[in-house]
Design a protein that fits this description.
Oligomer: single chain
Order of helices and strands: HHEEEEEEHEEE
Number of strands: 9
Radius of gyration: 20 Å
Strand content: 35-45%
Distance between the termini: 57 Å
Shape: globular
Number of helices: 3
Structural class: alpha+beta
Length: 142
């Protein structure tokens, strides 16, 4: 009987360890999954609101897809790439896109995007932090 207890404890411990820790990344990715539209940018404590619509310009948005795929639009270009989240709400974004001239709003976005390193997600609001607490503030649209 004693010879069965030790292997049984080891199996149960292995199952417990294997089931822990995997849900954090998956659930945070699931929360991010969807389409987000940029509403404002905070730089050095100044808030820059989204400009009104202009003919021929796209809404600045990001679409976080399953399996770490990322799509989006700047003011004049399409973006494709990847994202990866980790503990403590860290995030890494990467990719590229088309190369038409940007508006000043689009330039603020595309210059900030590679520097994003932390995110905060509350209800239908996503904040991507970059360079000294600057922020890209999004609202969920899908």
């Amino acid at each position: 009987m004693k010879t069965l207890v030790l292997p049984l404890v080891m199996v149960l411990f292995s199952l417990l360890v294997a089931s822990c820790g995997k849900t954090t990344t998956i659930s945070s990715n699931m929360e991010l999954t969807g389409k987000w539209q940029l509403e404002s940018i905070v730089q050095e404590e100044d808030t820059i609101p989204k400009p009104g619509p202009a003919k021929g310009q796209l809404d600045v948005s990001l679409n976080f897809k399953d399996k770490g795929e990322l799509e989006g639009t700047s003011s004049t270009n399409y973006i494709t790439g990847f994202y990866e989240t980790a503990q403590q709400n860290t995030i890494q974004l990467g990719g590229g896109g088309t190369e038409r001239a940007e508006t000043s709003w689009g330039n603020l976005f595309v210059n900030a995007l590679p520097n994003v390193n932390v995110y905060d997600l509350k209800s239908n609001r996503l904040i991507l932090f970059y360079e000294n607490n600057n922020q890209l503030i999004f609202s969920r649209i899908q």
